[in-house]
Amino acid sequence: MQRICIIGGGYVGLTYAAGLALKGFHVDIVDIRDPACDAINRGECPIDEPGLHEAIKNSVDGGMIAASPSIDDVFAGCTLFLVCVGTYCDEAGNIDLSQVRAVATGLQRCLAASTGGTFRTVCVKSTVICGTTDGVVQPLLEASGKLAGKDFGLAMSPEFLKEGSALDDIMNPDKIVIGGIDQRSIDAVRSVLGCFAAGTDRDGIVIETDLRTAELIKYAQNAFLATKISFVNEISRFAEMFGVNVGEVARAMGMDARISPLFLNAGPGFGGSCFPKDVRALLTAGRKAGHDSMLLDAVLAVNEAQKAHVVELLAARRAIAGMSIAILGLSFKANTGDTRESVSRTVIPELVRAGAARVKVHDPSCLARQEISEDLGSQGPVEVHDDVHACIAGTDACLVLTEWPAYKGLGAGAFSAMAPGAIVVDARRILDKASFAWSPIELVVLGESHDRSFRPG
Ligand code: UGA
């Protein structure tokens, strides 16, 4: 079986390594971090994803996956190179391509030294803005003296993994997009990644295209989903003002096949390492190219406003100064410990600024608690709790920010240890609303209101 080289042993790289090893490919992971390689070679997986720990452990033990800090160690034995390094994006939307450049430079050195007739293909999987593969990676590789399309193949295949179901998303993809400089490059990638489409009537899910189209598909998809969330959050603001439940509106809209019910849950705004970064990057690249996207600008503005709105829902009913407040949910979504760009990172400092006396925070994920403790724990009154009941006890207000299964369906009883006159703000719309009907605790659900005082005209 062919040997595949995956460059970058992070979230995407490790998940692809596991998926390909499960399909019978030998995988060499290259990561410049020595300790990360040592950990992988011991069968350890630093990422908390369902099924990933076992898959990595079994594949390492079975000799299917090995890690090395240098591309030079493995280049000769591999024919396909999947570039899975990070492409961070600053506040202004500028993508940091330093890791992509460093990888291309390493491959350039190897290509220059290579002799013989082995045709190797480099495939970018990192999320990169249009023009990166042909405009940045290709010139670096060709500085080896070898030509793309003649001496080596060049492709771009975006990933569509969701945190919490990444391995399953690889093993059962909706689609596999392969952009190539030519058909030979596409075929080289298809012969490997096509394994995830193999089987009855699944071959049709492979989309063959050019490099730039593949790059834009990734951004277009994430920007669309982010737009859908900002749209429903905008509708939820109307719902609150008109005395309507946004959940009923979204449910009815979602029954139209052209709309679909997915990604139509109103909430405290999208977070994570992908949507905010990718929308910013596309917006900024568009501006550089001469197009100022009013729509994407609005998607981000609505998202920021929605995070602020969570605090407003509380501030409109109680004075925050001097309050003891519980936060349930620190991660950007359920079933992950990732707190990057999570709403908790905006809401907690805002409550502290508004004069909250105590901000007691909880998350079922130990990793999320640790990240927030390290980053916000020094902010005066922030206390991290590993027990949800201890977190809620004695507080004047509680904000539910993440839709963890452990919080879903919690009724008024779960909040009975709050202080007299307490208020709960359900920003994820997951609590058992009916149970609050006879409770002294006030429940405010984002996207809902019973105030029907609005009159048009
Ligand atoms: C997202 C995409 O869904 C993946 O397809 C893509 O591959 C990935 O980014 C990436 O670019 O690597 P992910 O960031 O793991 O995946 O998370 P999502 O499940 O998409 O959720 C993103 C945010 O939107 C979360 O904060 C979530 O709470 C929020 N969201 C999602 C809502 O507020 N409402 C919804 O209806 C759905």
Can you list the strand order of the major beta sheet?
A: 3-2-1-4-5-6-7-8
Q: Largest beta sheet, briefly? A: 8 strands, mixed
Average pLDDT = 96
What is the H/E string?
Answer: EHEHHEHEHEHEHEHEHHHHEHEHEHEEE
Low-confidence stretches: none
Which structural category do the helix and sheet elements fall into? alpha/beta
* Distinct small-molecule ligands in the complex: uridine-5'-diphosphate-glucuronic acid
Supply the number of helical segments: 15
Distance between the termini: 72 Å
Q: What percent of the residues sit in helical stretches (DSSP H or I)?
A: 25-40%
Radius of gyration over alpha carbons? 24 Å
Total DSSP E strands? 14
Attribute tags:
single chain; binds uridine-5'-diphosphate-glucuronic acid; alpha/beta; 457 residues; 40% helix; 15 helices
Structure description:
By secondary structure, the protein is α/β, with parallel strands linked by helices. Helix content is 40%, strand content 14%. Strand 10, helix 14 (366-376) and strand 11 (382-385) form a beta-alpha-beta unit. Helix 5 (98-113) packs parallel to helix 6 (132-142) and helix 12 packs across helix 13. The radius of gyration is 24 Å and the shape is elongated. The structure holds uridine-5'-diphosphate-glucuronic acid. Uridine-5'-diphosphate-glucuronic acid (UGA) binds at residues 159-163, 222, 225, 229, 263-265, 267, 270-272, 274-275, 332-333.
